[in-house]
Protein backbone atom coordinates (compact mmCIF):
# COMPACT_ATOMS: atom_id res chain seq x y z
CA UNK A 1 0.00 0.00 0.00
CA UNK A 2 1.28 3.46 -0.84
CA UNK A 3 0.19 7.02 -1.48
CA UNK A 4 0.11 8.46 -4.96
CA UNK A 5 2.98 10.94 -5.31
CA UNK A 6 0.55 13.88 -5.16
CA UNK A 7 -0.84 12.33 -1.93
CA UNK A 8 -4.40 12.41 -3.22
CA UNK A 9 -4.98 8.64 -3.36
CA UNK A 10 -4.15 5.52 -1.39
CA UNK A 11 -3.18 2.67 -3.71
CA UNK A 12 -3.00 -1.05 -2.98
CA UNK A 13 -1.16 -3.15 -5.57
CA UNK A 14 -1.01 -6.94 -5.69
CA UNK A 15 0.69 -9.04 -8.33
CA UNK A 16 2.30 -12.27 -9.40
CA UNK A 17 5.05 -12.41 -12.02
CA UNK A 18 2.49 -12.10 -14.83
CA UNK A 19 -0.74 -10.62 -13.45
CA UNK A 20 -1.63 -7.58 -11.34
CA UNK A 21 -4.54 -5.74 -9.76
CA UNK A 22 -4.79 -2.26 -8.22
CA UNK A 23 -7.25 -0.82 -5.70
CA UNK A 24 -7.53 2.89 -4.91
CA UNK A 25 -9.18 5.17 -2.36
CA UNK A 26 -9.49 8.96 -2.07
CA UNK A 27 -7.00 9.94 0.66
CA UNK A 28 -9.51 12.45 2.06
CA UNK A 29 -11.86 9.54 2.78
CA UNK A 30 -9.54 7.06 4.55
CA UNK A 31 -12.39 5.06 6.12
CA UNK A 32 -14.04 4.55 2.73
CA UNK A 33 -14.00 1.44 0.60
CA UNK A 34 -11.19 0.73 -1.85
CA UNK A 35 -12.28 0.35 -5.48
CA UNK A 36 -10.73 -2.06 -7.97
CA UNK A 37 -9.39 -0.02 -10.86
CA UNK A 38 -9.28 -2.91 -13.34
CA UNK A 39 -10.03 -6.53 -12.33
CA UNK A 40 -7.22 -9.06 -12.44
CA UNK A 41 -6.87 -10.84 -15.79
CA UNK A 42 -4.39 -13.55 -16.69
CA UNK A 43 -1.14 -12.27 -18.22
CA UNK A 44 -2.24 -8.62 -17.98
CA UNK A 45 -0.02 -6.40 -15.84
CA UNK A 46 -0.61 -2.77 -14.98
CA UNK A 47 0.37 -0.07 -12.53
CA UNK A 48 -1.32 3.17 -11.55
CA UNK A 49 -0.23 6.77 -10.99
CA UNK A 50 -2.38 9.86 -10.40
CA UNK A 51 -1.75 13.32 -11.74
CA UNK A 52 -4.15 16.28 -11.82
CA UNK A 53 -7.42 14.39 -12.16
CA UNK A 54 -6.04 11.63 -14.39
CA UNK A 55 -4.89 8.13 -13.71
CA UNK A 56 -1.87 7.11 -15.79
CA UNK A 57 -1.87 3.37 -16.47
CA UNK A 58 1.31 1.48 -17.38
CA UNK A 59 0.10 -1.76 -18.94
CA UNK A 60 1.17 -4.62 -21.18
CA UNK A 61 -2.33 -5.13 -22.61
CA UNK A 62 -1.76 -5.39 -26.37
CA UNK A 63 1.73 -4.02 -25.65
CA UNK A 64 4.39 -6.59 -24.84
CA UNK A 65 6.88 -3.82 -23.96
CA UNK A 66 4.21 -1.83 -22.11
CA UNK A 67 2.50 1.44 -22.96
CA UNK A 68 1.08 4.32 -20.92
CA UNK A 69 -2.62 5.16 -21.07
CA UNK A 70 -4.47 7.95 -19.26
CA UNK A 71 -8.04 8.16 -18.01
CA UNK A 72 -10.04 10.56 -15.89
CA UNK A 73 -10.55 9.26 -12.37
CA UNK A 74 -14.28 8.84 -12.97
CA UNK A 75 -13.69 6.96 -16.28
CA UNK A 76 -11.97 3.70 -15.40
CA UNK A 77 -13.73 1.94 -18.29
CA UNK A 78 -10.93 0.68 -20.57
CA UNK A 79 -12.82 1.81 -23.66
CA UNK A 80 -12.39 5.42 -22.51
CA UNK A 81 -8.65 5.26 -21.86
CA UNK A 82 -6.51 7.60 -23.99
CA UNK A 83 -3.07 6.68 -25.30
CA UNK A 84 -0.25 8.75 -23.78
CA UNK A 85 2.86 6.76 -24.75
CA UNK A 86 2.24 4.13 -27.44
CA UNK A 87 3.54 0.57 -27.47
CA UNK A 88 6.83 0.11 -29.34
CA UNK A 89 8.48 -3.14 -30.35
CA UNK A 90 12.05 -2.01 -29.64
CA UNK A 91 11.53 0.15 -26.53
CA UNK A 92 10.26 -1.08 -23.16
CA UNK A 93 8.79 1.25 -20.55
CA UNK A 94 10.39 0.27 -17.26
CA UNK A 95 9.32 2.95 -14.77
CA UNK A 96 7.08 6.01 -14.55
CA UNK A 97 7.20 8.74 -11.92
CA UNK A 98 5.07 11.86 -11.72
CA UNK A 99 5.91 15.37 -10.49
CA UNK A 100 3.77 18.49 -10.48
CA UNK A 101 4.99 19.75 -13.86
CA UNK A 102 6.86 16.74 -15.21
CA UNK A 103 6.27 13.05 -15.92
CA UNK A 104 9.48 11.00 -15.82
CA UNK A 105 9.83 7.80 -17.87
CA UNK A 106 12.58 5.18 -17.65
CA UNK A 107 12.87 3.10 -20.83
CA UNK A 108 15.08 0.36 -22.25
CA UNK A 109 16.23 0.60 -25.86
CA UNK A 110 18.79 -1.68 -27.54
CA UNK A 111 19.89 -2.99 -24.15
CA UNK A 112 20.55 0.45 -22.64
CA UNK A 113 18.39 2.43 -20.24
CA UNK A 114 17.10 5.82 -21.38
CA UNK A 115 15.80 8.54 -19.06
CA UNK A 116 13.13 10.82 -20.50
CA UNK A 117 10.56 13.27 -19.17
CA UNK A 118 7.44 15.00 -20.38
CA UNK A 119 7.29 18.74 -19.72
CA UNK A 120 3.59 19.36 -19.05
CA UNK A 121 3.89 23.12 -19.57
CA UNK A 122 5.66 22.79 -22.93
CA UNK A 123 3.86 19.51 -23.80
CA UNK A 124 7.19 18.14 -24.96
CA UNK A 125 9.23 14.97 -24.37
CA UNK A 126 12.95 15.46 -23.62
CA UNK A 127 15.82 13.08 -22.85
CA UNK A 128 18.55 13.15 -20.19
CA UNK A 129 21.62 11.76 -21.99
CA UNK A 130 24.70 9.92 -20.73
CA UNK A 131 28.18 9.84 -22.26
CA UNK A 132 29.40 6.30 -21.60
CA UNK A 133 28.79 3.37 -23.95
CA UNK A 134 27.80 1.01 -21.11
CA UNK A 135 26.01 2.25 -17.98
CA UNK A 136 22.96 1.90 -15.77
CA UNK A 137 20.81 4.29 -13.73
CA UNK A 138 17.93 4.12 -11.27
CA UNK A 139 15.47 6.75 -10.15
CA UNK A 140 16.57 7.70 -6.66
CA UNK A 141 14.41 8.81 -3.74
CA UNK A 142 12.27 11.73 -4.92
CA UNK A 143 9.87 12.44 -2.04
CA UNK A 144 8.97 15.96 -3.18
CA UNK A 145 6.12 16.23 -5.69
CA UNK A 146 6.32 20.00 -6.20
CA UNK A 147 9.91 20.31 -7.37
CA UNK A 148 11.94 21.21 -10.44
CA UNK A 149 14.75 18.71 -9.78
CA UNK A 150 15.05 14.95 -10.22
CA UNK A 151 17.46 12.73 -8.34
CA UNK A 152 18.83 9.60 -9.96
CA UNK A 153 21.64 7.16 -9.31
CA UNK A 154 24.14 6.43 -12.06
CA UNK A 155 27.00 3.99 -12.38
CA UNK A 156 28.92 2.08 -15.01
CA UNK A 157 31.64 -0.53 -15.19
CA UNK A 158 34.18 2.27 -14.60
CA UNK A 159 32.17 4.96 -12.74
CA UNK A 160 31.34 4.36 -9.04
CA UNK A 161 27.74 4.62 -7.83
CA UNK A 162 26.85 8.31 -8.07
CA UNK A 163 23.87 10.43 -7.06
CA UNK A 164 22.96 13.17 -9.54
CA UNK A 165 20.38 15.92 -9.45
CA UNK A 166 18.89 17.02 -12.76
CA UNK A 167 17.39 20.50 -12.98
CA UNK A 168 14.45 20.49 -15.36
CA UNK A 169 14.62 24.27 -15.91
CA UNK A 170 18.36 24.39 -16.63
CA UNK A 171 18.51 21.05 -18.44
CA UNK A 172 21.66 19.95 -16.63
CA UNK A 173 22.80 17.41 -14.04
CA UNK A 174 25.11 18.02 -11.09
CA UNK A 175 26.91 15.37 -9.08
CA UNK A 176 25.86 15.33 -5.41
CA UNK A 177 27.77 12.34 -4.12
CA UNK A 178 29.90 9.46 -5.39
CA UNK A 179 30.83 6.27 -3.56
CA UNK A 180 34.44 6.26 -2.41
CA UNK A 181 36.87 3.78 -3.96
CA UNK A 182 39.32 2.70 -1.26
CA UNK A 183 42.00 1.90 -3.82
CA UNK A 184 43.80 5.26 -3.83
CA UNK A 185 45.36 4.48 -7.21
CA UNK A 186 42.01 3.96 -8.91
CA UNK A 187 41.18 6.20 -11.84
CA UNK A 188 38.38 5.56 -14.34
CA UNK A 189 40.73 6.68 -17.10
CA UNK A 190 42.86 3.57 -16.51
CA UNK A 191 40.04 1.27 -17.61
CA UNK A 192 38.06 0.70 -20.77
CA UNK A 193 34.49 -0.50 -21.16
CA UNK A 194 32.75 -1.57 -24.33
CA UNK A 195 29.84 -3.57 -25.67
CA UNK A 196 30.14 -6.28 -28.31
CA UNK A 197 27.60 -8.73 -29.70
CA UNK A 198 27.56 -12.50 -30.11
CA UNK A 199 25.36 -14.25 -32.65
CA UNK A 200 23.06 -16.88 -31.10
CA UNK A 201 22.10 -20.14 -32.79
CA UNK A 202 18.83 -18.61 -34.03
CA UNK A 203 20.53 -15.44 -35.29
CA UNK A 204 19.73 -13.14 -32.37
CA UNK A 205 22.43 -10.61 -31.40
CA UNK A 206 23.38 -11.10 -27.73
CA UNK A 207 25.04 -8.07 -26.06
CA UNK A 208 28.16 -8.52 -23.95
CA UNK A 209 29.38 -5.69 -21.69
CA UNK A 210 33.10 -5.75 -20.87
CA UNK A 211 35.61 -3.84 -18.78
CA UNK A 212 39.40 -4.24 -18.62
CA UNK A 213 42.58 -2.29 -17.83
CA UNK A 214 43.71 0.02 -20.62
CA UNK A 215 47.08 -1.79 -20.80
CA UNK A 216 45.28 -4.88 -22.12
CA UNK A 217 44.09 -2.96 -25.17
CA UNK A 218 47.69 -2.58 -26.31
CA UNK A 219 48.28 -6.34 -26.08
CA UNK A 220 45.00 -7.45 -27.68
CA UNK A 221 45.45 -9.88 -30.58
CA UNK A 222 49.04 -10.63 -29.51
CA UNK A 223 47.90 -12.62 -26.47
CA UNK A 224 44.77 -13.82 -24.69
CA UNK A 225 43.68 -12.89 -21.17
CA UNK A 226 41.93 -14.53 -18.24
CA UNK A 227 38.27 -13.60 -18.57
CA UNK A 228 35.50 -13.72 -15.96
CA UNK A 229 32.11 -14.14 -17.68
CA UNK A 230 28.94 -13.87 -15.61
CA UNK A 231 25.20 -13.84 -16.22
CA UNK A 232 21.80 -14.63 -14.70
CA UNK A 233 19.12 -14.91 -17.37
CA UNK A 234 15.87 -15.53 -15.47
CA UNK A 235 12.73 -13.92 -14.01
CA UNK A 236 13.09 -10.90 -16.30
CA UNK A 237 15.96 -9.61 -14.15
CA UNK A 238 18.29 -7.47 -16.23
CA UNK A 239 22.05 -7.84 -15.75
CA UNK A 240 22.69 -4.11 -15.58
CA UNK A 241 26.34 -2.97 -15.79
CA UNK A 242 27.46 -1.79 -12.36
CA UNK A 243 30.62 -0.65 -10.61
CA UNK A 244 32.39 -2.87 -8.10
CA UNK A 245 35.56 -1.98 -6.24
CA UNK A 246 35.87 -5.70 -5.39
CA UNK A 247 36.16 -6.39 -9.13
CA UNK A 248 39.41 -4.39 -9.18
CA UNK A 249 41.13 -7.45 -7.68
CA UNK A 250 40.49 -9.14 -11.02
CA UNK A 251 41.07 -6.18 -13.33
CA UNK A 252 44.38 -5.23 -11.73
CA UNK A 253 45.58 -8.79 -12.29
CA UNK A 254 44.91 -8.62 -16.02
CA UNK A 255 41.39 -10.06 -16.17
CA UNK A 256 38.65 -8.99 -18.52
CA UNK A 257 35.28 -8.86 -16.76
CA UNK A 258 32.26 -9.53 -18.96
CA UNK A 259 28.48 -9.65 -18.52
CA UNK A 260 26.40 -11.67 -20.99
CA UNK A 261 22.96 -10.07 -21.47
CA UNK A 262 21.23 -13.31 -22.40
CA UNK A 263 17.56 -14.05 -22.89
CA UNK A 264 15.57 -14.80 -19.76
CA UNK A 265 16.55 -11.41 -18.41
CA UNK A 266 14.79 -8.25 -19.52
CA UNK A 267 17.90 -6.49 -20.85
CA UNK A 268 16.37 -5.85 -24.28
CA UNK A 269 12.72 -5.62 -23.25
CA UNK A 270 9.93 -7.98 -22.29
CA UNK A 271 10.23 -10.18 -25.44
CA UNK A 272 13.84 -10.86 -24.37
CA UNK A 273 12.46 -12.29 -21.13
CA UNK A 274 9.67 -14.25 -22.80
CA UNK A 275 12.18 -15.89 -25.16
CA UNK A 276 14.10 -17.31 -22.19
CA UNK A 277 11.40 -18.85 -20.00
CA UNK A 278 8.99 -21.79 -19.99
CA UNK A 279 9.36 -23.78 -23.24
CA UNK A 280 12.07 -21.41 -24.51
CA UNK A 281 14.41 -21.71 -21.51
CA UNK A 282 17.15 -23.38 -23.54
CA UNK A 283 17.68 -20.08 -25.38
CA UNK A 284 19.22 -18.80 -22.13
CA UNK A 285 21.85 -21.54 -22.11
CA UNK A 286 22.52 -21.40 -25.84
CA UNK A 287 22.97 -17.62 -25.69
CA UNK A 288 25.58 -17.95 -22.95
CA UNK A 289 27.50 -20.59 -24.89
CA UNK A 290 27.43 -18.34 -27.98
CA UNK A 291 28.89 -15.49 -25.90
CA UNK A 292 31.68 -17.72 -24.57
CA UNK A 293 32.51 -18.96 -28.08
CA UNK A 294 32.68 -15.41 -29.46
CA UNK A 295 35.05 -14.28 -26.70
CA UNK A 296 37.34 -17.21 -27.46
CA UNK A 297 37.13 -16.93 -31.25
CA UNK A 298 37.80 -13.17 -31.19
CA UNK A 299 40.93 -13.64 -29.14
CA UNK A 300 39.87 -12.02 -25.88
CA UNK A 301 40.48 -15.22 -23.96
CA UNK A 302 41.04 -18.95 -24.44
CA UNK A 303 39.43 -22.13 -23.15
CA UNK A 304 42.28 -22.43 -20.64
CA UNK A 305 41.61 -18.95 -19.21
CA UNK A 306 37.81 -18.65 -19.23
CA UNK A 307 36.07 -18.45 -15.84
CA UNK A 308 32.26 -18.44 -15.66
CA UNK A 309 29.99 -17.55 -12.77
CA UNK A 310 26.29 -17.54 -11.94
CA UNK A 311 24.19 -17.82 -8.81
CA UNK A 312 20.74 -19.24 -8.00
CA UNK A 313 18.91 -19.34 -11.35
CA UNK A 314 22.26 -18.24 -12.78
CA UNK A 315 23.64 -21.36 -11.11
CA UNK A 316 21.12 -23.39 -13.12
CA UNK A 317 22.69 -21.72 -16.15
CA UNK A 318 26.15 -22.80 -14.99
CA UNK A 319 25.02 -26.40 -14.56
CA UNK A 320 23.30 -26.52 -17.95
CA UNK A 321 26.15 -25.01 -19.98
CA UNK A 322 28.81 -27.11 -18.27
CA UNK A 323 26.86 -30.27 -19.11
CA UNK A 324 26.48 -29.15 -22.73
CA UNK A 325 29.96 -27.71 -23.42
CA UNK A 326 32.39 -28.57 -20.62
CA UNK A 327 35.28 -28.13 -23.05
CA UNK A 328 34.72 -24.35 -23.31
CA UNK A 329 35.48 -23.45 -19.70
CA UNK A 330 38.47 -23.69 -17.38
CA UNK A 331 36.68 -22.80 -14.13
CA UNK A 332 33.02 -22.73 -13.07
CA UNK A 333 31.80 -20.89 -9.96
CA UNK A 334 28.19 -21.89 -9.21
CA UNK A 335 26.76 -20.01 -6.22
CA UNK A 336 23.72 -21.58 -4.49
CA UNK A 337 22.78 -23.13 -7.86
CA UNK A 338 19.22 -24.20 -8.68
CA UNK A 339 20.31 -27.48 -10.26
CA UNK A 340 17.74 -30.13 -9.24
CA UNK A 341 14.96 -28.39 -11.16
CA UNK A 342 12.65 -31.28 -12.00
CA UNK A 343 12.55 -32.82 -8.52
CA UNK A 344 12.09 -29.43 -6.83
CA UNK A 345 9.31 -28.35 -9.18
CA UNK A 346 7.49 -31.65 -8.54
CA UNK A 347 7.35 -30.95 -4.79
CA UNK A 348 4.66 -28.28 -4.11
CA UNK A 349 5.36 -28.47 -0.36
CA UNK A 350 8.59 -26.52 -0.92
CA UNK A 351 8.46 -22.70 -0.68
CA UNK A 352 7.74 -20.80 -3.90
CA UNK A 353 7.24 -23.87 -6.11
CA UNK A 354 3.69 -23.07 -7.26
CA UNK A 355 4.68 -19.47 -7.98
CA UNK A 356 7.60 -20.81 -10.00
CA UNK A 357 5.23 -22.49 -12.48
CA UNK A 358 4.98 -19.11 -14.23
CA UNK A 359 8.74 -19.14 -14.83
CA UNK A 360 9.59 -22.78 -15.55
CA UNK A 361 6.23 -24.41 -16.24
CA UNK A 362 4.28 -27.01 -14.30
CA UNK A 363 6.03 -30.40 -14.61
CA UNK A 364 2.75 -32.17 -13.86
CA UNK A 365 2.03 -31.30 -17.49
CA UNK A 366 3.82 -33.90 -19.68
CA UNK A 367 5.14 -31.31 -22.16
CA UNK A 368 6.73 -29.20 -19.43
CA UNK A 369 8.00 -32.26 -17.57
CA UNK A 370 9.92 -33.49 -20.61
CA UNK A 371 11.26 -30.05 -21.46
CA UNK A 372 12.47 -29.25 -17.92
CA UNK A 373 14.01 -32.72 -17.68
CA UNK A 374 15.96 -32.09 -20.90
CA UNK A 375 17.98 -29.22 -19.34
CA UNK A 376 17.78 -29.80 -15.56
CA UNK A 377 21.50 -29.84 -14.60
CA UNK A 378 21.37 -32.67 -12.06
CA UNK A 379 19.54 -34.98 -14.45
CA UNK A 380 21.91 -34.35 -17.36
CA UNK A 381 25.29 -35.05 -15.78
CA UNK A 382 27.06 -37.65 -17.93
CA UNK A 383 30.34 -39.54 -17.90
CA UNK A 384 32.75 -36.96 -19.38
CA UNK A 385 35.46 -34.49 -18.43
CA UNK A 386 34.30 -31.41 -16.52
CA UNK A 387 36.13 -28.12 -15.74
CA UNK A 388 37.39 -27.13 -12.31
CA UNK A 389 34.31 -26.31 -10.25
CA UNK A 390 33.50 -24.51 -7.00
CA UNK A 391 29.89 -25.00 -5.86
CA UNK A 392 28.46 -23.14 -2.86
CA UNK A 393 25.39 -23.70 -0.68
CA UNK A 394 23.71 -22.23 2.40
CA UNK A 395 22.27 -24.53 5.05
CA UNK A 396 19.42 -22.11 5.80
CA UNK A 397 18.62 -21.27 2.18
CA UNK A 398 14.80 -21.22 1.69
CA UNK A 399 15.00 -20.73 -2.09
CA UNK A 400 17.58 -23.27 -3.20
CA UNK A 401 17.67 -26.03 -0.60
CA UNK A 402 21.20 -27.02 0.44
CA UNK A 403 20.71 -30.58 -0.82
CA UNK A 404 20.49 -29.42 -4.43
CA UNK A 405 24.15 -28.36 -4.79
CA UNK A 406 25.12 -31.30 -2.55
CA UNK A 407 23.38 -33.82 -4.85
CA UNK A 408 24.80 -32.11 -7.91
CA UNK A 409 28.34 -32.33 -6.51
CA UNK A 410 27.93 -35.98 -5.46
CA UNK A 411 26.74 -37.02 -8.91
CA UNK A 412 29.59 -35.11 -10.57
CA UNK A 413 32.09 -36.90 -8.33
CA UNK A 414 30.59 -40.23 -9.35
CA UNK A 415 30.53 -39.67 -13.11
CA UNK A 416 33.20 -37.15 -14.12
CA UNK A 417 36.24 -38.64 -15.82
CA UNK A 418 38.87 -35.97 -15.04
CA UNK A 419 41.10 -34.99 -12.13
CA UNK A 420 40.06 -31.34 -12.06
CA UNK A 421 39.16 -29.68 -8.76
CA UNK A 422 35.59 -30.08 -7.54
CA UNK A 423 34.75 -28.33 -4.26
CA UNK A 424 31.42 -28.04 -2.45
CA UNK A 425 31.48 -25.24 0.13
CA UNK A 426 28.41 -25.15 2.38
CA UNK A 427 28.01 -22.18 4.71
CA UNK A 428 26.39 -23.65 7.83
CA UNK A 429 25.05 -20.26 8.97
CA UNK A 430 23.98 -18.60 5.70
CA UNK A 431 20.84 -18.39 3.60
CA UNK A 432 20.34 -17.69 -0.08
CA UNK A 433 22.29 -14.41 -0.12
CA UNK A 434 25.39 -15.86 1.52
CA UNK A 435 27.12 -14.69 4.67
CA UNK A 436 25.68 -11.72 6.53
CA UNK A 437 27.64 -9.11 8.43
CA UNK A 438 29.66 -6.15 7.28
CA UNK A 439 32.74 -8.10 6.13
CA UNK A 440 31.84 -11.78 5.98
CA UNK A 441 30.56 -11.62 2.42
CA UNK A 442 33.96 -10.29 1.38
CA UNK A 443 35.58 -13.42 2.79
CA UNK A 444 33.34 -15.55 0.58
CA UNK A 445 34.31 -13.57 -2.52
CA UNK A 446 37.98 -13.73 -1.50
CA UNK A 447 37.66 -17.52 -1.25
CA UNK A 448 36.24 -17.71 -4.78
CA UNK A 449 38.92 -15.42 -6.17
CA UNK A 450 41.63 -17.46 -4.42
CA UNK A 451 40.21 -20.62 -6.01
CA UNK A 452 40.39 -18.96 -9.44
CA UNK A 453 43.93 -17.63 -8.92
CA UNK A 454 45.21 -20.99 -7.71
CA UNK A 455 43.80 -22.88 -10.72
CA UNK A 456 45.13 -20.28 -13.19
CA UNK A 457 48.48 -19.99 -11.44
CA UNK A 458 48.08 -16.27 -10.74
CA UNK A 459 50.03 -14.82 -7.85
CA UNK A 460 47.78 -13.67 -5.03
Describe this entry's structure for a reader.
With 460 residues, the protein is of the alpha+beta class. Helix content is 21%, strand content 32%. The chain has helices spanning 214-219, 248-251, 270-274, 282-297, 313-324, 341-345, 353-360, 366-375, 403-415, 440-456, and strands at 2-3, 9-15, 20-26, 35-36, 46-51, 54-59, 67-72, 82-85, 91-98, 102-109, 112-119, 124-128, 135-139, 149-156, 162-167, 172-178, 191-199, 205-213, 227-230, 256-260, 306-311, 331-335, 388-394, 422-427. The protein has an eight-stranded mixed β-sheet with strand order 17-18-20-19-21-22-23-24, with helices on both faces. A four-stranded antiparallel β-sheet has the order 1-2-3-4, with no helix packed on it. The protein has a four-stranded antiparallel β-sheet with strand order 5-6-7-8, with no helix packed on it. The longest helix is centred in the C-terminal third of the chain and has 17 residues, at 440-456.
